Structures are given as structure tokens and as C-alpha cells.
Amino acid sequence: MSEMWTSETPNAAERELRDMHFMFGETEPAVPGRAEEYRKQVRALEEELARIRREQASIQYSFFEAAQIQRRLCAPRQYESPEFEVAGEIFPVRHLTGDFFKVFDLGSDLGVVLGDIAGKGLSAGIWMPHLVSLIHSCAREHGDPAEAIAAANRELCFGCGEPPLAAVFFARLDRLTGEVAYCNAGLPAPLLLRRDNLLGNNPLEEEGALPLESGGPMLGATRAARFQTGTALMERGDLLVACSDGVTECENASEREFALDGLERAVRGFSVGSASQTLFSALGAVLDFADGRALRDDLTLLVVQRTAVSSTREPAARCPSGTFLQ
Length: 326
Known about the structure:
The chain is an alpha+beta fold. The protein has eight helices and 13 strands.
């Protein structure tokens, strides 16, 4: 609502000023006493309009600052280690977004989380830092993804009055084995695409992507929600692609949705490069599909590529080496 106010409030003063000019034309009223009153009203409206515009600029700058803080909270946008490369990006439809992602070290594992808080703009944006911190904390306390998500859900439902609904995908990536232990709480099913199928080297295998569906309901619905952990295996060159529903529900002029099929086709078309190249090529495919149609929801996409197989496991007490890029 605040964002709507910043765009619409100056218009009221502008309309009133235009109405006065329309009523009296370009000349001041000829009636004695009315000319001075007219000039005072015009000056008052001009001063009010200038004040509103200054206030609007201040509010817009505050939103800009908040958006930059959100971007830093979602860092790193790129992560590189000997075993994995991760790239993520958010395209908000307003200044602030309820979408988020995070990449962080979990001892010998790598943690990745992507989420979508129900609603848009300011209300969802206010909840985002709290939920990111909550999931990060629970992921450090619980080795099983389902237990971590269940703990985050209990905390959200217990201590936040009326919590928001939030769809979340959380995964632990084992650097040594490539095992993906994950919990998907209400997001479109992330896709695991095999390198051999991406390159067309396994014609006898089914070429469809593996959807990562195990999990449970959205966070914030009920404290008693139950979640389960799913597992998959990433070999060298495999891709894991996760997104918010703003990607899958993006519509073109014919009101046809991009859907998971469209995302899979886009990733397959640009999967020979790095995770970052695949990410931005896939986002470009989404925007091309929309073909200028206004986006209804934030777009968030996360691409994980297994780049190598680790030869030794790092001790759990140490943070494995990796390069975090903002």
C-alpha cells in the first residue's frame, strides 16, 4: 500500500492545480479580491505538491535501501567450490520481494535454501530477513532437512502472532558423495537433470528430469505440520534447478503458463555452460516467453551444478573451502 501511495498521492495535488487553471484559464480572476485569493491558493498547492514530491522521493529511496539490504541478505548470488557451483537471482515486481535464497556452509555439506513468502511488496519483504535467519539457524541445529524445516515451522507458528505462509525448499549437498538430502515445503518441484541426458549421451534412458517432491505443506499453516526428507544423487555435470512459482506461473499473451516443462526445456537448451550461464539463459527464456506481458509475481531461480567429485571429506568442525561472490 505504501508503494501505491508513493505513486498516486502527488497526482491528487496535480489534478487540483490543473482544475484551478482550467476554471480560471491562464489569467487571474478579474473580480476584485479574487485575484489575490487565487494566487494564494495556487502557491499553497504548488508548495503542497513540492512537499509531497520530496516525501515521495524520500520514501522511494528508503525502499531502494531496503531492497539493497535484501540483496545482501540473499548473498552469495554466486558460489564456487571444487565440488559445486551455485548461482541464483531474483527479479522482483516491486521494490521489495518476499522471495529469497541463501547458500551457506554446513560443516562438510553445502546448504541451499529458496523460499517464497505469500504476498508481495512491503509486508512480505518485512518477513523475509526473519525467515532467512530462522531457516539458517535451524539448518545448523538439525542435520536432517525435514527436522530443520519442521523446527523452523514450529518457531514461526509459535512466536510470530499471525505468521505468513511461506513455501520453502531446503537441501543439504554432500561434497564427498554428491547426495542431495532435501525437503520441499510447497514450492514447484525442483528439477534434477542428469549430465548424460542433457548432452544426449544416454538415448536408452528416460530423458525427463527428476522432480524433487518430498517434503510437506507450506510453513506457517499449522504448527503440527509434518515433513519428510527426500534424497537424490548428483554426479559430475548434473544440474539442480529450483524456482519460485513466479517462474512457473509466468504467462504469455495467450495466458499460457511457462510451467515446469518450459523451465526444463530452457535449462536443456543452455546447459553446456556454467551454472551462472544456465541461470541467466533460463531467466531470459522466461522473459522472452512473457513477451512484454507484465509480471504478476517475483521471479526467483537457483541453479546448482556439480562440477567435480571431492576426494576427501572435510572434518565436520571445519568450514570447507569455497568462494562466495556477492
